[in-house]
Design brief:
mainly alpha, 0% strand, globular
């Protein structure tokens, strides 16, 4: 029932809080790799093998879809409601490039400076800020992008917009 700005703020803060908890919980288990972009960069840097990277990416995408289905059910929507929310345009895609690049750079710098304990707070802070400094609301994660296509809400994305979001 909130207006658009209040809804965006509520969504950003909820996302940041959940990210903090999930990263804190899963960092010791899997490195809290929820993002295929981060996994890809770690693979490029030879931090993980190809097989491990593929398992992570498949798990991340399935997790994104499962999360969308769970959210749909919690809010008494159909389990799967394909999005009609088109997200296109230069500014939106540029925002995704900035959000994704900044996220990866943040993680790599914290790891390089041996400050992994800051990741659980720095990543959510970046994502919360990205909701407001990008025109796209900063998906910054291909697995989340795919998942959001399975939910028809204000924060969702139509399947036709997904490929460009993943590329950017």
């Amino acid at each position: 029932a909130a207006d658009a700005t209040a809804g965006l703020l509520i969504n950003a803060l909820a996302t940041g809080a959940v990210l903090f908890v999930l990263i804190s919980l899963f960092a010791p288990v899997s490195g809290a790799q929820f993002n295929p972009i981060v996994t890809f960069v770690l693979w490029l840097k030879k931090g993980i093998g190809l097989g491990e990277a593929l398992v992570f990416v498949i798990s991340q995408v399935l997790g994104g879809v499962a999360g969308a289905v769970l959210a749909n059910l919690m809010f008494t929507d159909a389990a799967i409601a394909f999005s009609a929310n088109q997200r296109e345009g230069f500014g939106i895609h540029l925002g995704e490039v900035v959000a994704s690049f900044g996220l990866v750079l943040l993680i790599l710098i914290l790891l390089q400076h041996q400050k992994p304990s800051l990741i659980p707070i720095a990543v959510p802070a970046w994502i919360i800020a990205g909701y407001f400094f990008t025109a796209s609301t900063s998906f910054a994660n291909p697995a989340v992008t795919v998942g959001r296509a399975f939910s028809d809400t204000g924060s969702s994305i139509a399947f036709s917009s997904v490929p460009m979001f993943i590329l950017t």
